[in-house]
Design brief:
The complex is a heterodimer of chains A (293) and B (270).
Chain A (H helix, E strand, L loop, with lengths): L1 H41 L14 H9 L10 H36 L1 H14 L4 H12 L3 E2 L2 E2 L2 H25 L4 H9 L4 H39 L5 H10 L5 H29 L10
Antiparallel strand pairs in A: 1-2
Chain B lengths: L3 E12 L7 E12 L3 E5 L6 H8 L7 E6 L4 H6 L3 E4 L11 H11 L4 H14 L15 H12 L6 E5 L7 H18 L2 E6 L2 H7 L2 E6 L4 E7 L13 H15 L17
Parallel strand pairs in B: 3-7, 3-8, 5-6, 6-7
Antiparallel strand pairs in B: 1-2, 1-4, 8-9
Helix pairs in contact in B: 3-4, 3-5, 4-5, 7-8
The chains are: A mainly alpha (293), B alpha/beta (270).
Chain lengths: 293, 270
């Protein structure tokens, strides 16, 4: 039908507009950065704006292109990019595990009211434990886990922490979503003598999408934050989290370097958000536009 | 028994029985619907008409009494897809096309893909929405959505249609068109219909018999037979139509002499 293609066309146009805004956002961020630096030379600001604390945008760019250590072949940006990809992969793994666990919990809680009453307080309590306190604990326990050739390592611990943060928003959002089908729709399914499983697949799941999509966005962000913070506290050498700490120590000699690592962490976050946005487009492709979140 | 589409005898439905918030929704309700018959349930809010429909559909169990649907228990009737249902909300699934919405009950009844698509298109033909098969429900008007819901309720070729104010949310013009369409479909398919409504003219126009109910406790007070022959647009202007509308109105006010069905005397409302 014509309306289908025009919908796709509209989405594409919206996508182009979003990209334009994103680029404008980067430009505005650069202008603000330099603007604040400029302002700092005129009036006294409550924070340091010297080139040492806030290097110029072009200094950061130079820092990214400079070799990692004197005489090395690898420029800083390549190291950061490698670390960013490594961090992204771990965050992705944590996200997938978190989503799977979150969905499973939501299904169980929706199906059995007993579990909703019994489980939900624990799900909420799980998020009140500070991540920093949790990381050494998980590493400590993980070191003692091994099944045959499999040995739990640092990567598993970090992924676990990412999943631990990611499952929560998803399970809460998915639970609300699974309860979103209208009473009339549920009565209809009953009148068709649909099994609980059929009701789940054909009604509850699709009806949960408007709640699931924002939950996925929050979970993805949580997985990235969880990964970066866990990498810092476990001292994982390959990741962006550790790189930020390392480069911060070199800030007195090379102030630009740490910002390159921070930008790397931001890029990880943006890629994660972008992937979820694609998932959003896919999941909501058949829904009215006003429902989009 | 086999000539009866629905048989209900001394049905009681008491919510929260024994508790302080006990509500008697149905009190000693007996009703028979013959095959091919169109019966409307009418009455003020809280009279139990929707409850009675839900008991027949096995969406809720009766507290006491016997209910037979298409010759079997309501549960069997539900599991064998012997009845179709439509509600005031079309309750279509936004993420499915119109055609796939109509296919839903067939999917759940285990039909294979090609067969159910052919059947769905046939039904969409019947409600004159063939051209909208690939649209999404939210692209359709309220009346069109309700036609899709009716097509869906007919999917498994049920012997009985159970309808709970299906035209309640439609404007008057659409509503009258839909009434004609429903009568045509019921006649074509030979389906019996139990139809819950708030509207007296609607009940009279559609039905062979109008069952008048009264609240606190929910019970049947009158059964008004309507004999207007084949309906057409002139029927709405005919004297017989007005007489029947008056009869139902009087029955709703609790003033009329009970009519029909052996003339069970009406106990005066307190």
């Amino acid at each position: 039908m014509a309306s289908g293609t025009s919908t796709a066309g509209r989405r594409l146009k919206q996508g182009a507009i979003s990209l334009g805004w994103a680029l404008a956002g980067v430009l505005i961020a650069i202008l603000l950065w330099e603007g604040v630096k400029l302002l700092g030379t005129v009036v006294t600001l409550p924070f340091e704006t010297s080139n040492q604390a806030m290097p110029h945008v072009w200094t950061i760019a130079e820092g990214a292109l400079a070799p990692e250590v004197r005489g090395s072949e690898t420029p800083v940006w390549v190291t950061v990019l490698r670390a960013a990809i490594y961090t992204l992969l771990i965050a992705f793994g944590g996200f997938i595990i978190g989503v799977a666990v979150g969905l499973l919990l939501a299904i169980v809680m929706q199906r059995f009211a007993f579990f909703e009453r019994g489980l939900l307080p624990f799900v909420i309590a799980s998020q009140t434990v500070p991540l920093i306190a949790l990381a050494p604990l998980i590493v400590g326990i993980g070191n003692r886990i091994s099944f045959g050739p499999f040995q739990w390592g640092q990567t598993q611990s970090i992924m676990f922490i990412a999943a631990y943060l990611a499952f929560f928003p998803l399970s809460v959002g998915a639970l609300r979503g699974l309860q979103a089908a209208t009473p009339t729709q549920l009565e209809l399914m009953r009148s068709y003598a649909a099994t609980p499983r059929a009701t789940l697949w054909k009604l509850r799941f699709p009806a949960s999408v408007p709640y699931l999509v924002p939950a996925l966005k929050v979970s993805a962000a949580a997985a990235v934050v969880g990964t970066v913070v866990a990498q810092i506290s476990t001292g994982d050498r390959g990741g962006v989290g550790r790189l930020i700490i390392e480069y911060a120590r070199e800030a007195s000699s090379q102030p630009a370097k740490v910002y390159v690592a921070v930008i790397g962490a931001i890029i990880v976050g943006l890629i994660a958000a972008g992937l979820v946005a694609l998932l959003d487009l896919y999941l909501t492709r058949n829904l009215p536009k006003e429902r989009l979140t | 028994m086999s000539e009866l589409a629905v048989h209900a005898e001394s049905v009681w439905k008491i919510f929260n029985e024994g508790a302080t918030n006990e509500v008697t929704a149905l009190s000693d309700v007996s009703i028979d619907v013959r095959k091919g018959e169109f019966v409307s349930l009418i009455g003020p809010s809280g009279c139990g008409k929707s409850t009675l429909l839900r008991v027949i559909a096995d969406l809720i169990p009766a507290t006491r009494g016997t209910v037979t649907v298409a010759g079997v228990t309501p549960q069997q009737a539900r599991e064998q897809h012997r009845y179709g249902m439509a509600f005031q909300q079309a309750a279509l699934l936004d993420w499915r096309t119109v055609c796939r919405n109509v296919e839903l009950p067939l999917e759940l009844a285990g039909w294979d893909k090609a067969k159910r698509k052919a059947r769905a298109l046939e039904l969409l033909d019947m409600v004159q929405l063939h051209d909208f098969a690939d649209h999404r429900p939210w692209e359709l008007s309220g009346g069109m959505q309700q036609r899709v819901a009716i097509a869906r309720s007919l999917a498994t070729d049920p012997e009985i249609l159970l309808m709970d104010e299906p035209f309640g949310a439609l404007d008057e013009m659409t509503r009258e068109r839909m009434q004609n369409e429903l009568l045509r479909i019921a006649k074509e398919t030979g389906t019996s219909v139990v139809f819950v409504t708030h509207s007296i003219p609607e009940a009279v126009y559609l039905s062979n018999r109008v069952v008048v109910m009264s609240p606190r406790p929910g019970r049947i007070t009158h059964v008004v037979p309507v004999d207007l022959g084949d309906r057409n647009e002139d029927t709405r202007e005919s004297d017989g139509f007005y007489d029947a509308v008056t009869a139902v109105r009087e029955a709703l006010r609790g003033r009329a002499t009970p009519v029909g069905e052996g003339g069970a005397r009406l106990a005066e409302t307190s």
